[in-house]
Amino acid sequence: MKTIGPYQRGLLLVVEPRSKNIPLEQMIQENERFFDSYHLPSPAAIRTDTFESDIMTMYAWPAFRIANDCATVRFKEIMLESGTSAALAINPQFPKAREALARLEH
Fold first, then answer.
1. Where are the domains of the chain?
2. Does the global pTM surpass 0.85?
């Protein structure tokens, strides 16, 4: 029986066989290209009392998930630069990302 695992590919979470053994650095680089291609409004332009906040969280979630993967393997610098900070740049009100960044700063 093959074991499978999640692989972040932009906004999608793809199920891949673990035998592919995709390096974390490769996933980060691939996703940075996705993140750079997004044309998101400024966080200040978002009406936080509407569905727009939820949509921004959906865009921020992949960066946050990658940040957690980095933390799991102890890539603190990558996590700060590529993950949590990117998630907060997309949605400054993303509570889980704010909590993670606060934990790292202590």
1. 23-105
2. no
